[in-house]
Design a protein that fits this description.
The chain is mostly helical and about 260 residues long. Helix content is about 75%, strand content about 0%.
Length: about 260
C-alpha cells in the first residue's frame, strides 16, 4: 500500500471514528476515556435488542419489569460515558461559527477558560454531590419499585459519580492538550488554567480530611454533628492556602529547572 493510500485511509478512519482524531496528541487520560467509550458503546446494540424484545413480548401479554429497568440502566450508563467521550473527541454540540476561524493559540485559550473555569468546577461539584447520593442509596438498600425489577438500584446510582470522575479525567486531559499549544505545561499553569476547579477540589479535600480526622479522634461525636464543627467553617481558606502553596512550590521548581537547562 502506497503512502498516499495509507494517509487517505487514516484520514477516512479519523472522520468515521472520533476517537482517532488528533490521536498523536492524546495523553493517557484521552486514551483511557476513548477505551471506556468504545467498550460502553456496545451497550447501544444490546439496548436496541432489549427494547425490541420488550415490545414483542408485550404484544403477547407479557411484561418483564426487570427488562424495563435494564433499559434505563444501559441507557443511563452509556450516556454518562458518552459525556466524557464527547469532551475528549470534541464531538459535542457547539457553536463554531467564529471559533472555527480562530488561530490555534486563540482556540486553545478559549478552551482552557471553558474547561478549567466553567466545566471542571461543575463536574467536581456533581461528582461530590452524587457520591453522597449513591452512598445514601446503598445504605437504604434501594431497589426497583416493581417486585420483579432490578433491585440493586444503588449500583446504577454509584455509576453517576464514577461517570463524572471519568468526565473530569477527560477534561483535565483536554486541558493539558490545549496548554501545550500555548506554553510549556507546569503544575502552577494547570492550577491557574483551572483555578476555580482547583480551589473547590482542594476545599473538598480539606473538608473530608478534617471530617475523618474528627470522626476518628472523637468517636463519640454524632456523625451528623461533625459537619457543624467550627473548624469546618475554614475549609474554604484551607483549600485556598493549599492551592497557593502548590502554585508557589511549582513556580519555584519550574524556574529552577529552566535556569539549570
Amino acid at each position: 500500500m502506497s503512502s498516499d493510500t495509507l494517509e487517505a485511509a487514516n484520514q477516512s478512519l479519523a472522520i468515521t471514528d472520533p476517537g482517532e482524531r488528533n490521536r498523536e496528541n492524546h495523553v493517557w487520560g484521552d486514551r483511557l476515556m476513548i477505551g471506556i467509550g468504545n467498550v460502553f458503546a456496545w451497550l447501544f446494540p444490546v439496548l436496541m435488542v432489549a427494547i425490541v424484545t420488550q415490545v414483542i413480548i408485550r404484544k403477547f401479554g407479557f411484561n418483564q419489569a426487570w427488562l424495563d429497568d435494564a433499559q434505563w440502566w444501559m441507557y443511563g450508563m452509556a450516556m454518562l460515558v458518552g459525556f466524557g467521550y464527547a469532551i475528549t473527541t470534541e464531538s459535542h454540540v457547539r457553536v463554531d461559527i467564529l471559533h472555527q476561524n480562530y488561530a490555534p493559540a486563540k482556540k486553545s485559550k478559549i478552551e482552557i477558560v471553558a474547561l478549567g473555569w466553567l466545566l471542571l468546577p461543575f463536574l467536581i461539584l456533581m461528582a461530590d454531590i452524587l457520591m453522597h447520593y449513591a452512598i445514601a442509596s446503598w445504605r437504604a438498600g434501594e431497589g426497583s419499585d416493581s417486585a420483579n425489577g432490578l433491585h440493586m438500584l444503588y449500583l446504577l446510582k454509584a455509576a453517576l459519580p464514577i461517570g463524572f470522575v471519568a468526565a473530569i479525567i477527560a477534561s483535565v486531559a483536554a486541558l493539558h492538550r490545549h496548554l501545550t499549544v500555548i506554553t510549556t505545561p507546569a503544575l502552577w499553569k494547570y492550577i491557574i488554567g483551572a483555578l476555580p476547579a482547583a480551589w473547590f477540589g482542594l476545599e473538598r479535600l480539606s473538608y473530608y480530611v478534617l471530617w475523618w480526622f474528627t470522626r476518628i479522634t472523637q468517636p463519640d461525636l454524632n456523625v451528623r454533628a461533625i459537619g457543624r464543627q467550627d473548624v469546618m467553617d475554614y475549609t474554604m481558606w484551607m483549600g485556598f492556602g493549599l492551592m497557593m502553596l502548590l502554585i508557589v512550590i511549582s513556580f519555584v521548581r519550574s524556574r529552577s529547572t529552566t535556569r539549570e537547562a
